[in-house]
Protein 1
Amino acid sequence: MKSWSTPAPRALPVQPDRLRVFDTATQALRHPGNDARTASLYVCGITPYDATHLGHATTYVSFDLLQRYWLAAGLEVAYTQNVTDVDDPLLERAEAMGVDWRELAREQTDLFRSDMEALNVLAPDHYVGATEAIDLVVRAVEAMLEGGTAYRVPGTDGEPDGDVYFDSAAAQARGGWTLGSVSAMDRAQMEEVFPERGGDPGRPGKRDPLDPLLWRVHREGEPAWDGGALGSGRPGWHIECSAIAREHLPAPFTVQGGGSDLRFPHHEFSAAHATAVDGRPLAHTFLHSGMVALDGQKMSKSLGNLELVSRLRARGVEPVAIRAAILDRHYRSDWEWSEDLLTAAEERVARWRSALDGPHADAGAAVLAAAHTALSEDLDAPAALRVLDTWADGTLDGLSATAEPLPVADVVDALLGLRLR
Ligand code: ZN
């Protein structure tokens, strides 16, 4: 699928890679790394039916910051993102709206791309739709059936024969993954969130209520693809990301990212599936961004309390102010969007802009060193923004010690993705 297009950031003087981030799987700060020269990132993409609300924007801006940190540390970054362009929520939404699901997916994906460009989010190298990954999914599910880590469920009232599920117990017996090893949740927590996040614990014939769907055989009125020996049908959600990541990134890749609502079951089972297929871990480190609330509740289509990037843009709000408002909250914290936050961000951007006309406009080296150091500690963007405030005040250390002038505007664009000019 066509990705979007964001200008490549200016190459900066290389900074030391001292990054430590909070890994959900180990519940500890750690350096996410396979080697000193490359890094690889997979961020779960949208299901294109409510793009792009500020919860989405926060996720992609947060992981964009990670990519920009790595680039500033001189690493080569490989980045893949998916689009879940066929799944129950999309089909249900399209039906409720009386539109073709493909049309809704296309239109919402286009909107998402334009919002990402506006927010200066660097594009992934591979942007892959679920509908483009059917063959990858079929091969992975076949491998799991052969390896005994997947099983077919017989039909019951109203459900046809042949849906394929992941066998969590068999996969654990095989080794390399245990239930909870990615999400760091206990069984009671998993059982609580599973039905809220697309799981079907009550489906008769499953060996464990938490076993997730791998392949859903065709039902009347639903889209379906040729699944070879699996029969006509469509992929489950977790295997989609698992198969796409395996195809386009190293095994394991460096960071699996997404919103904190993806910890379980999505990231738990994406990782489990990959290991069940080839014995290797999916990712080195698992990072989760916080949830964004509006009017006291998590922003979601079902609650109807969405603020959309496109709506703000249509109102004339500058994307750089939206980005600055997002970066002023630590990526792991849950927070609430408000007009006050936006106003504060607009005022801050104006202050930084006026400082670009002041005597320290070329003190980029000092800003870069201080902001990169701030980001090294679990991507502390609020601290990096405070570096800009200190620079604008003229009180940042090292402002006068710039042997080579480096425009602050270029540093801020490249490292933080804030386009001040
Ligand atoms: Zn995913």
Protein 2
Amino acid sequence: MRYLVTGGCGFIGSHLAERLISLGHHVCILDDLSSGHAANAPCEAELVIGDVTEEAKVRAATDDVDGCFHLAAAASVARCNSEAIATNRVNLVGTLTVLAAAARRNVPVVYASSAAVYGANAAVPLGETSELRPLSVYAADKLACELHAGVTSHLHGIPTVGLRFFNVYGPRQDPASPYSGVISIFADRLAKRQELTIFGDGGQVRDFVFVGDVVDALVASMAHRRSGAFVCNVCTGEATTILGLANILADIVGAPARLAYGPPRAGDVRVSVGDPRRLAKVYGRAPATGLRAGLTALLHEDAETSPAPARAQRMTASLTAGRT
Ligand code: NAD
Ligand code: UD1
């Protein structure tokens, strides 16, 4: 099969592209490299550098595909709050553009939604029918993506699957940006023996899910797609506070965590723990990697999964060969 992976140079998208290739599929990546890196893309993938809101580019990239995985987005809640208009364009208009191109080709779309759609709903655990109370620009846009996926399925008959990822972690999550996920930032700072900043009191609760389990869910969603629009949590059901996370990481690294406290982030969700039962029921497997095991794998595999210079050179060659 041939698949489009938007955002395939990013954290989750590059792991997905790798898996699809290892399963024998052909992968075309569309990415504007705004937060991803070309060297993250597997050498075997075709790489199109472009913006997911550019209709012509998206149409060309979907020309002969059997399905679309749509992951390209501005993934930081904090950045979306401070750059609402620019990120709305990427997160919502980008999704609409992919949905329209897929409808034209009559192919399914599996796209990244988010646990952020539950927002102020602090029920534990959050099931897919729980009330949605977005607290941020990012969350409102992800919810709008789900609504548009439903409308596209209704109007054009293509299957769509929205996966509500909870907090994803694993190798290749870039700690360089202040907008990175908390685990990549904390792991990087601990390794450099720097202090960790806790936004608020550190009592925020998250459900951390390992990237390999997320890729399992993405691949299964495309393989076992149903008709119509479907949404599903991708989570473990395991609750961890941010302070608890700092302690577990410090324990694995074997260095004490020095903490500094900053003001809470605007639009930050307080409690986010998902119910993984729908995922387990529909696809036969819920995320299985426990947090400590996943963090240990992350801290020990980091060096192996960073792009090596030779890999980056091969990427440049394949980039030149790819459609632009
Ligand atoms: P990431 O920033 O590592 O990857 C996003 C990729 O999209 C990057 O390679 C970036 O360059 C690309 N991109 C951004 N804007 C683009 C544009 N206009 N056109 C083309 N490419 C563009 O983020 P990630 O953590 O891998 O997230 C992937 C998806 O999963 C996103 O949709 C995000 O909202 C969603 N998600 C992530 C998490 C998480 O915990 N990481 C949780 C829930 C949902
Ligand atoms: C994350 C994802 C978002 C996804 C959502 C789903 C990233 C960048 N964002 O948002 O795409 O939709 O999960 O639940 O992956 N924190 C600190 N100190 C730090 C960094 C963060 O205390 O240095 C705190 C934050 O205030 C927050 C928690 O850690 O309470 C998690 O933050 P972050 O990793 O940025 O993720 P979310 O905002 O939950």
Protein 3
Amino acid sequence: MMDIYTIGADVLRGNAAPVDSFDDEFAALIERMFVTMKQGKGVGLAAPQVGIPRRFFVMQIDGDKQRVFVNPEIVETSMELDSFEEGCLSIPGVYADLDRPAEIRVQAWNERGRRFTLGADGFLARVIQHELDHLNGVLFVDRLPERTRDRLLKQYEKRMRA
Ligand code: NI
């Protein structure tokens, strides 16, 4: 299992660089990330979370296939918002409801370097948006009202010190 970096680590706060080669090494890395994601009982894992400042993430939600998004871009978002509870392997034990666009359209490359476009809603759209934020140095708590964020992070730090 790869180490998962937690909030406070610089690698989680940078703007990740595009992936430019889809070689065997990249394929092996993706496999290791799926293993790490599952061992952590997560549904998504972005490269910066394992210390790699590159623009890709892996995900798998219940009843769906394994999905890989390389150099993803959200090209459309709905005006309608959905509220969903989010958590993150990089902020263990912190969960909060968060509004995001209910539907999105995303363009990306898969692990073999094939380009695709995907329309997504529900939990799938939610996870894609959460993971894509990681590539831009954004954590879900950043999107919460300041008071909620401060309260949750104080509780988190207290637990970490205990
Ligand atoms: Ni996360």
